[in-house]
């Protein structure tokens, strides 16, 4: 059970991470700049809240976007891993960017859906847990990123269970039905959980550099 003190610590740590990434961005030193963005891969969406097999895959639940501008489609976005930090205990926080390639403004609203993938490309057990936090309409011009954060435990709990690590990470943008696959450091995730393997808490998208609630 997360205590208020731990929540406050995580918020301060996350705020520092986001602000540090913004500062590095101004100097052209954000790690994501050296990591290639990836384009959408035509695979079934991996947004099922409990993913254990291909048959369990389902589209990201449609969330009504209140913006008058159109939603950014998966084909208009690239995704990159921004940075990560270890939190209290065995918590791990990682920041990802969804960057618009659309020539016209578009918006993102709500939670991305995520799933862990094995080296074969098949999903491994993922418990995708949307974090309760205010959704924000993020309007993107071409080249603008929206950020979101995931949080997971990267070491066994008191039960000492053994959980598999992913080779890649599938992200389905809010309102989309196709996933974007992240490889490299942002795709290698060893997620444990308080109840089962693969528990990942997912924040809603937010403007670049805005600290998100834990």
Write the layout of secondary structure elements.
Elements: H1 4-26, E1 50-51, E2 77-86, E3 91-100, E4 106-108, E5 113-117, E6 126-130, E7 138-140, E8 145-153, E9 168-172, E10 180-182, E11 199-202, E12 206-207
Parallel strand pairs: 6-11
Antiparallel strand pairs: 1-6, 2-3, 3-8, 4-7, 5-9, 8-11, 8-12, 9-10
**Percent of residues in β-strands:** 25-35%
Largest sheet: 7 strands, mixed
- Classify the secondary structure makeup into a structural class: mainly beta
Question: Helix and strand succession?
Answer: HEEEEEEEEEEEE
Cα end-to-end separation: 14 Å
Pick out the low-confidence regions.
1-15, 18-59
Helical proportion, percent range:
10-25%
Number of helices: 1
Whole-number total of structural domains: 1
Rg (C-alpha, Å)? 16 Å
Overall form: globular
Number of strands: 12
Mean pLDDT: 74
Domain DUF4232: 72-205
Protein name: DUF4232 domain-containing protein
InterPro entries: DUF4232 (IPR025326)
Organism: Sulfobacillus acidophilus
């Amino acid at each position: 059970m997360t205590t208020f003190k731990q929540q406050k610590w995580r918020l301060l740590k996350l705020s520092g991470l986001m602000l540090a990434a913004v500062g590095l961005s101004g100097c052209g030193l954000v790690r994501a700049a050296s990591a290639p963005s990836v384009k959408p891969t035509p695979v079934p969406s991996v947004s099922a809240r409990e993913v254990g097999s291909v048959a369990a895959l389902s589209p990201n639940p449609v969330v009504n976007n209140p913006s008058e501008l159109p939603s950014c489609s998966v084909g208009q976005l690239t995704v990159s891993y921004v940075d990560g930090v270890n939190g209290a205990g065995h918590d791990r926080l990682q920041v990802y960017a969804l960057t618009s390639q659309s020539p016209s403004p578009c918006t993102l609203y709500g939670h991305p859906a995520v799933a862990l993938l094995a080296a074969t490309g098949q999903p491994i057990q993922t418990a995708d847990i949307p974090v309760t936090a205010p959704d924000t309409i993020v309007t993107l011009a071409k080249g603008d990123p929206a950020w979101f954060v995931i949080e997971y435990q990267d070491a066994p709990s008191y039960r000492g269970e053994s959980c598999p690590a992913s080779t890649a990470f599938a992200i389905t943008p809010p309102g989309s039905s196709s996933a974007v696959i992240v490889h490299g450091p942002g795709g290698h995730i060893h997620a444990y959980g308080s109840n089962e393997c693969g528990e990942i808490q997912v924040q809603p998208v937010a403007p670049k550099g805005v600290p998100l609630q834990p």
